[in-house]
Amino acid sequence: MVIVSVLVIFIYALLIINFLRGWIALPEFEASGMANEPRVTIITACKNEVNNLPYLFQAVNEQSFRNFEFLLVDDGSTDGSYEYAEQVSLNFPELKLLRNSGKGKKEAIKTAVLQSESEIIVTLDADCLPSVDWLNEIVQFYISYPSDLIICPVKMDSDGSFFQEFQQFEFASLIASGAGAAAIGMPVLCNGANLAFRRESWLECMDNLHFEVPGGDDIFLLQSIKKRKGIIRFLKSVNATVTTHSAVNLKSFIHQRRRWASKKSAYTDWQLALTAAVVFLASFIVLLDFVLAIVQPNLIALVLNIFLLKLLIDVSFFYKISDFFGLRKVLLNTFVFSLIYPFYIVFTAILSLAGTKKNW
Predict the structure, then answer these.
(1) Which residues of the chain fall short of a pLDDT of 50?
(2) Rounded to whole angstroms, how far apart are CA atoms 288 and 5?
(3) One-character DSSP codes across 74-131
(4) Which of 41, 119, 321, 325 is most exposed, with the fewest beta carbons within 10 Å of its own?
(5) What is residue 215's DSSP assignment?
(6) For residue 263, what pLDDT is reported?
(7) Do 319 and 42 meet the contact criterion of CB atoms below 8 Å apart?
(8) Each residue of 140-178: pLDDT tens digit?
(9) Distance CA 257, CA 252 (A)
């Protein structure tokens, strides 16, 4: 058991160190001026987002880059989202409303992509808020570094409560790990809440996006472009970052995590599978060691050493990304969350076996 525990944590350390090396190597991008070309289509899939739409419309309408169209695709909203957007569009000429030709977020994006004629597509979730230079930053990066897929940063807000701090740290670790992985040539993660891609690249991948599977619009696209040897980059820029909300309660948090976990079986990229397996095993080993130490007190020293080694790795990672993502009380939070995370990871793994959620 000792050898297995040490080996798993060693492999985990190698993985995280490589992701961190990639993150550190990524230079922060800052647009040098104002772009006018190429034309961009912003796509937002919308389902019952009437409370978020006023803030979204204001943020998009204030963009410094103006050569864009904004396609809002309604997926059968019942809260008045479409009617509200219809009224706003009267004074927002870039905003165009579409009805989803299918069902679900992935079909909504497809509806808009096929409607668009722009060179660049940017997907933006309805509950996200971009900065005023968000679109200009993405366009300038695309001009400087032509790419098939540009992974853009997403940051989760927090009111300082324990529950929201936990979500913010976990979410930041996913985004930063995806960035570091892309930087070392093994892209495995991205987030459709803030994602840019060439329209032609999406069309080439359309048959591999698994429209029969709810969600996964982002990861399936990344995997297809990766398989086709396309160029995938992460845009490390504060101005290109969008901010999203934390789950307001435990029920919505579990629903979201179950929705994320349920798609894992459909992903085929071995590097993503390896990453998920290593992260799971590292947490599982820590949890198993704690249980064994209760039965065999002579293992307490091993448990503490394994836990502290993993904690050291995680603290180093979070310290390096804390400024970019606005993380606070890194040492304290990482320590507390490290006590909870093994239980959470095992719970999430069980959720992934509980069936696919059909809604988004």
Answers:
(1) none
(2) 9
(3) E-S-SSSHHHHHHHHGGG-TTEEEEE-SSSSHHHHHHHHHHH---SEEEEE-TT-EE-
(4) 119
(5) S
(6) 60
(7) no
(8) 999 999 999 999 999 999 998 999 999 999 999 999 999
(9) 9
Side chain identity at residue 48, one-letter code: N
Q: Which residue has the tokens 């349920």?
A: 262
Name the amino acid, one letter, at 177: S
pLDDT reported for residue 296: 85
Q: State both tokens at 85.
A: 């957007």
Say what the pLDDT of residue 349 is. Answer: 77
Tell me how far apart the alpha carbons of residues 43 and 69 are, in angstroms, rounded to a whole number.
Answer: 9
The pLDDT value recorded for residue 265 is 56
What's the count of helices (H) and strands (E) in the chain, helices before strands? 12, 10
pLDDT of residue 340: 92
The number of beta carbons lying within 10 Å of the beta carbon of residue 295 is: 7
C-alpha to C-alpha distance for 102 and 94, rounded to whole angstroms: 24
Q: Are strands 68-74 and 242-244 parallel, antiparallel or unpaired?
A: unpaired
Q: Could you give the C-alpha distances from 164 to 60, 237, 277, 323, in angstroms and in order?
A: 26, 23, 26, 18
- The whole-model pTM stands at 0.92
